[in-house]
Amino acid sequence: MVSVSQVAVVVLGVAIAGFLLYPPPPLSQRLLSWKQRGKVYPYNDVEVFYVDEAGSGTGTVVCLHGFPTSSYDWIKIMPYLKNQFARIVLVDFVGMGFSDKPEDYNYSVFDQADMIENLAESLSISSTHLLAHDMGDTVALELVARFKERSKNTGLVLTSLCLLNGGLFPGKYYPRLLQKIMLMPVLGKIASRLIFFQLFRTRFGEVFGTSKPSYGDFEDFYAAIRYRDGNTVLPGLLNYIKERSDNEDRWVNGTLKTSPIPVLMVYGPADPVNPSPVFPDHFRKVAPQHKLVVLDKSIGHYPQWEDPEKTGRSYIDFITGL
Asked: In the chain, where do the E strands start and end?
């Protein structure tokens, strides 16, 4: 006679197999159009996706997105960027978006910074502004640390830095439950393979304020993650959380506090990852010389998506005031 526990094991096994075999969703016309705007750059035996577009202004800006999304995050503020800059470069980090997503890759903030420097060199970018969000904030701080350390006559010259909601300060940053699970050595790999759309929509939606993405937006975020089985590399990408703690002295005390370039933080306070008033109070304490723009209390972790007008205008005001 078959026991209830045996039946449960079989049902669970079938469910897991179903998730593992379930194909990624098709790309919407919006994502396909974004993909067609980009090119690929060979880096460390992987292909990195980037969009390189001309604007009507002056100078260059390189945009660094957050976890777990992609360069598509910036699409709503592209009109502001095109009016301000002559060149806008938006990159998908290795393991994210339309870039390659190898499972056996050593994902690291330092490697992503190497990739950005190499890409900039290949595109003949000698000087640039940086616009970053979330995980991209940390990659940007590593780039600023390198700029600070080397001679100003060598390498990539950085002109300014704009940060959007990012867990810059260990101990005052609160990863989501799903992130904590995926950081567990064995359980994380299993969990990353069992992320289905409704679970993603519910958990990812929690980091937004009252201006939630539309159903179609959630589908696009999810499809970009699932592209090339990107969900399977999420645990490796999350190594940046540990790196933040390990390198707090370098990135916070050694770089943010004493940045050689102007810094702006645009912050959405309805952010459970970097909650208010803890985050803005600590930012003011650590780096009082830098400018902080706090958006409406309804705006959460993705200000460039939730309030592109105020975010875009705040950034342009910062750039024009330099």
From this structure: 39-43, 46-54, 60-64, 87-91, 127-133, 157-164, 263-267, 291-294
